[in-house]
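Q: Protein A?
A:
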Amino acid sequence: MKSLLLVAIVVCLIPTRLEAQETLPKPTLSQALSLLQEDFFVPQAWAGVWEIDELVVTCNGDSTLEMFTELDTLCTNSLIEVGDDEFSFTCKGTVSDTQVSIVCTFVEQIFLGCTQDLSWELNATRNGETYVAVGTVSAKYAGPSCGELQDSCVEATTNGTRVGPEPNSCEGVPVEPTGWGTIKVRYGSDQ
């Protein structure tokens, strides 16, 4: 997942515009957490280097949409910010050193005569050096102009294992993991 901040989760193959039906946002746990409160910082209990395995499927289990493994570095007190202001989710939930439980909703008229209702639920449990997170995003469409837009649902299950402590030089570590090529371009490295 490209921005696995606390519990790496993800989901969303849900269209937000008719023309964008094939490319969907993937909200992360950190985005949901930042919606719960103005500023959210990574708790010390989550700090470290995590190896994550994620499986994204349709809610009915008919299709596997994505499977991957990657590393994610989380630094204590790193500010988690939402990178996409397109959605104005209303969220309720709780966050602790061991549990995350969040439900978010977002309703908008995507065009005249068609309303989109997004629902995003995330539950995660950290137990020592491991965590399991399950996120579900569903979209329902209502209105005479929705045409061929169909209700949809995606579920992501993430298993994480802490494989290293928080690095000594954690300050300045990007919150979102990025490929080395992107980092070199961004910071002008010739290495």
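Q: Protein B?
A:
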Amino acid sequence: MDKTLEAHDKLIREIFEGSYQFEIPDYQRPYAWTTEQATELFDDLYSAMQDARVSGASSQYFLGSIVLIKNDRDPKSSVVDGQQRLSTLTMLFAVLRTVMPDAADDITDFLYKKGKVSLAVAQSVDRRDCRPPPRTLAHHGIRPDSKGRAGR
């Protein structure tokens, strides 16, 4: 059987909602981004949202290529390229869930397949409020506890 490679433009919310469950293959390197790289991604996203707010028009931000191997009948998607960005975005959403308790349920739903919110939720937060103290992410899990908070 011939295999084909198809490329599709996707919104961030489309990648994080229902039909995708990320699986990091064993051959991938561990998470290695530094604070500098994560900050650059966050600053770029924040700037894109600010530009959209000022212009009053919707704009798109190119996140970069993310390569997934996915079977249409299986929600699992093996991450071939883009692991660092996907992992960083997942951590960003976990931090947003913590600093925005009123949106915690929606963010948790978004991260775990219901897809109710998008990155636009960050427009209501000052970007400095989203930066955790340097060791916070190391001490909190990504999955929420029974009350929707990041676990320890």
